[in-house]
Design brief:
By secondary structure, the chain is mainly alpha-helical. The chain has one domain. Helices cover 51% and strands 0% of the residues. The chain is built from five helices and no strands. Helix 3 runs antiparallel to helix 4. The radius of gyration is 18 Å and the shape is elongated. The chain starts with 7 loop residues before the first helix and ends with a helix.
């Protein structure tokens, strides 16, 4: 949103010319951002399940479900910490402007909402 080009992901996929709505949609326009979005949504589901079934934690089914969810979250966190790290540093020169997101993601306003809605 702030177009901080010192973050490599923003430098590779952001632009000053991109409208604000599509600038937010740039988050899920590449692998690193998609995994970050997926982790945020997955953590939300884990919190929802843990809060919903907190009084039934002694039930083996609930315990196993939470264990599986935590293992999946751990896998994606490891992806974020390693090969898909979205916060790598970049040193832009004066006047730098990135290429912007994939043009196919900017051809209709609903393309900005499509990927997050898929996870719901």
């Amino acid at each position: 949103i702030t177009r901080d080009f010192t973050v490599a992901f923003v430098a590779e996929h952001g632009s000053h010319r991109t409208p604000a709505l599509f600038n937010v949609a740039t988050l899920w326009s590449a692998l690193e951002g998609s995994i970050l979005l997926w982790v945020l949504i997955l953590v939300g589901y884990v919190v929802a399940v843990a809060r919903r079934f907190r009084d039934r934690l002694a039930d083996p089914m609930v315990a196993w479900a939470l264990l599986v969810l935590f293992v999946v979250c751990t896998f994606f966190f490891l992806l974020l910490a390693g090969p898909a790290f979205p916060f790598a540093r970049f040193h832009p020169w004066a006047g730098f402007d990135g290429p912007g997101p994939n043009p196919l993601l900017q051809n209709h306003i609903l393309m900005a909402f499509h990927p997050p809605v898929l996870y719901l």
